[in-house]
Amino acid sequence: MELKYKIGFPSLYYPKISLADRIDAAAEKFGEKTAIISAEPKFPSEFPESMNFLEICEVTKKLASGISRKGVRKGEHVGVCIPNSIDYVMTIYALW
């Protein structure tokens, strides 16, 4: 891969891989290692205070499936009103 520079900035190469594929790859590579820890563990949440890569993979697939069953399709806009928390991260991953 050849990098080309224009006005002092290198061109960036981004492989064409979806977020879902990246989450799957991280789950396969890192498994039960901790991936995310809640900054405010006392926040009433559906999720535990921390999650590993396998749990993130499983939860995002379940949430994405549920969102799809509700009729949300690719390209549609979805509003998310959740405080910064593990819930927020899982929801955004599922919607992506």
Describe the structure.
The structure is a single chain. This protein has 96 residues and is of the alpha+beta class. It has a single domain, classed as 3-Layer(aba) Sandwich (Rossmann fold), CATH 3.40.50. The chain is built from three helices and four strands, in the order E-E-H-E-E-H-H. The chain has helices at 19-30, 53-69, 86-95; strands spanning 5-6, 9-10, 34-37, 50-52. The strands form two sheets. It has a two-stranded antiparallel ribbon with strand order 1-2. The mean pLDDT is 85.
Distance between the termini: 28 Å
Structural class: alpha+beta
Percent strand: 5-15%
Helical content (DSSP H or I, runs of 4+): 40-55%
Query: If you consult CATH, what is the topology?
Result: Rossmann fold
- Number of beta-strand segments: 4
What's the CATH architecture?
3-Layer(aba) Sandwich
Strand line-up in the sheet with most strands: 1-2
CATH class: Alpha Beta
Please give the largest β-sheet: 2 strands, antiparallel
Runs in which pLDDT lies below 50 for 5 or more consecutive residues are none
InterPro entries: AMP-dep_synth/lig_dom (IPR000873), ANL_N_sf (IPR042099)
Protein name: Long-chain-fatty-acid--CoA ligase (FadD-1)
GO molecular function: ligase activity
Keywords: Ligase
Short structural description:
By secondary structure, the protein is α+β, with helices and mostly antiparallel strands.
What is the secondary structure topology, with strand pairs?
Elements: E1 5-6, E2 9-10, H1 19-30, E3 34-37, E4 50-52, H2 53-69, H3 86-95
Antiparallel strand pairs: 1-2, 3-4
